[in-house]
Amino acid sequence: MDSFSQALPRSAMSPAIGFISLGCPKATVDSERILSRLRAEGYTMVGDYQQADLVIVNTCGFIDAAVEESLEAIGEALEENGRVIVTGCLGAKAELIREVHPKVMAVTGPEAVDEVLAAVHAALPPPHDPFESLLPPGGLKLTPRHYAYLKIAEGCNQSCTFCIIPSMRGPLVSRPIGEVLDEAQALVSAGVKELLVVAQDTAAYGADLRYRTAFWGGRPLKSRIEVLAEELGRLGVWVRLHYLYPYPHLDRLVELMAEGWVLPYLDIPLQHASPAILKAMRRPAKQENMLRRIEEWRRRVPGLTLRSTFIVGFPGESEADFETLLDFLREARLDRVGAFTYSPVDGAAANALPGAVPEAVQQERLQRLMALQESISREKLAESLGRRLTVLVDEVLEDGRLLARSAAEAPEIDGVIVVEEARAAPGDFLEVEITAADEHDRLAHPL
Length: 447
Ligand code: SF4
Fold this sequence. Notes:
The protein has helices at 3-6, 25-40, 64-80, 94-100, 113-123, 165-169, 177-189, 225-233, 250-258, 275-281, 287-300, 319-332, 359-382, and strands spanning 16-21, 44-46, 54-59, 84-88, 106-107, 147-151, 153-154, 173-174, 194-198, 213-216, 219-222, 238-241, 265-267, 305-312, 336-341, 388-396, 402-405, 417-419, 429-437, 442-446.
């Protein structure tokens, strides 16, 4: 079960809840909301099936492996405890869950905090004095105290053929800008030093609101990602933007990076580089433009880190398409790359496309791509030897060394910087000099 639960002591009087949080950072934010509300109502979180009065499982349903993992987690909770409430992405497929696990008490979909609370109340009424338990300002976080995910919207208006998020989570629904900024301010007041801005399609923020103007702190603010990002930057903490679809207005976000409002870190899932495959994926297909844009962004923001993800073995991907992708990577020299083989998710439009790529070919292409990217990453990180950087400390290891990250490393997905011979605590900023690097991580000394 989630280690977060183990940190909280159980009062003999309060009803006890076990919580399993699976899935992406967006699901983590949902988990935090549910846990914060339960804790505020006086429930206790426990890290042991036997001590729990019931167990909530926040599931993921993005790819088949995640569905498997979620169903297994539900099965384990049922076996060990017996009283289980399911929520999250897989919850959108209630029939599937009930078919495999007919004994679950309730099933709700993603973003369903109120429904989860109602299901808990029905099974386990809240204790009488909710104010007995103290809720830290900023709510309860599943991430370490010094960084926090800030979800700014839910759902997506795109129709990438490999993805079922729009059908699971619905169209884009942006949170009001004032509400997002209030939450960000509360997090910063609670000690958060880095805000990780997430949504399924972060750069589309506000499109569903027609970019309407709202008032925050007595000032009119348009509901646009550029405005929101700059306001978050004004809070004086690191702001990292994730999952940016390659829209034309990304250029304005790059300006904000050049001006220092947000971290110079562009996380753009490009998915492929062959125009034919991008078209079949229903993604923007002009990769010559993308190379030109990358060049221009790097010119505008020296030290910019570019992260992307790619799918190999998409239906119809020929050897020539794959070579186009490798050529793109050679030329673009991205800093961080994640790659996956195509996985036919139940309900995705791409499943109907001809030209399925055999598993063995998919794996072979994935290995080739990763080998190429490793050599690029190794070269790029070696270029940083001797460079002086500001890092944020995440953890102090038993041997006294520090695990830290610079603007170039997002938590949980990128490498780390190991700082030797330094004393600091998680959440401290340090100035360091890079002394060694491999293809993922770097070593540094304090200045
Ligand atoms: S933009 Fe992202 S969330 Fe939206 S359909 Fe495409 S892959 Fe899915």
